[in-house]
Amino acid sequence: MKALSMRVLRILAVCGLTVLAACASTYRNHGYVPPESELENLVVGTDTRATVDDLIGPPSVSGMVGDGDYYYVRSRKRTYMMLRPKVIEREVVAISFNADDTIANIERFGLEDGKIVPITSRVTDSSVVKNGFLRQLLSNIGAISPVDAFDN
Length: 152
Hints:
The protein is built from five helices and five strands; from the N terminus they run αβααββββαα. The chain is α+β, with helices and mostly antiparallel strands. It has a domain at 24-116.
């Protein structure tokens, strides 16, 4: 009897440890930001876009207009059990360039510098929403001019 109770106790302990291990947080890293030691090698006003490409490498995100600025982005997310993943760390290095492709500025931003941007959609109201099919069809009869239809 005592051996059976010890066996059940061991099985319960293993199950309990398995459940605790399953509840551990998991972390995901995404993106790349060059370390400060590599950024110190860049000289503002002297180095060019080609120098940045050689020393650090081109970023995965760049400005939208022509040869825009460089943005290096790295984030870290934590997932705990079945909860929604939460961003716990984000870092952005922005390298802006002058018109002659020399470095104008190097800035570093963190998660605390970010702002939540509400996403809104602007939709043009359609006048056909409240009109039925026949009303739309009959309202177009007077809109066509015979002169426009037969003008060559």
